[in-house]
Amino acid sequence: RLALPATVENIFQTLVGFVDTLLIAQLGLVAVTAVGLANTILNVYLAVYMALGVGATALIARSIGAGDRESLTFHVRQALVLSVGVGMLFGLLSLVFGRQMLVLMGADAESLAGAQA
Fold first, then answer.
1. Where are the bilayer-spanning segments (predicted)?
2. d(CA 100, CA 116)
3. Beta-strand runs (E) in 1-117
4. DSSP 20-42
5. Of residues 38 and 84, which shows the higher confidence score?
6. Helices 29-66 and 69-104: crossing angle, nearest 10°?
7. Total count of domains within the chain
8. What sign results for the dihedral spanned by CA atoms 14, 32, 50, 85?
9. Nearest CA to 114 among 7, 48, 32, 45?
């Protein structure tokens, strides 16, 4: 019962990826490769955010269950600050080292141009 929302979310994420690939495939193989490369980096970022979300949810739920308003405020504030900080860090890393990350993943010149777009 508790896993149902997470399961539904994963199904929808898979469907979105499938539809994206289906639509991009109409543009050609290079476009599919470029989207696949970019999505690989995005999936790493999503995994980090999901882990942060699980941890924050557990701490916030414990605070609510204990009726500790001070702890609740602290954990919500920390979760927001951490999320914004990690988002800014990932954005900066992508901006500065995006090309290098794609090259390390084996992108050729043609798919590299598409993945950076």
1. 12-37, 44-64, 76-97
2. 11
3. none
4. HHHHHHTT-HHHHHHHHHHHHHH
5. 84
6. 160
7. 1
8. negative
9. 32
Say whether pLDDT at 60 is over 90: yes
* Residue 60 contacts residue 29 (beta carbons within 8 Å): no
pTM over 0.85: no
Residue 111, pLDDT score: 83
- What is the model's pLDDT at position 72? 96
Domain residue limits at 58: 4-116
Euclidean distance between CA atoms 83 and 26, whole angstroms? 36
Q: How far is CA 45 from CA 1, 50, 69, 90, 95, in A?
A: 27, 9, 31, 7, 14
Tokens of 90: 């990932």
Q: What is the CA radius of gyration of the chain?
A: 18
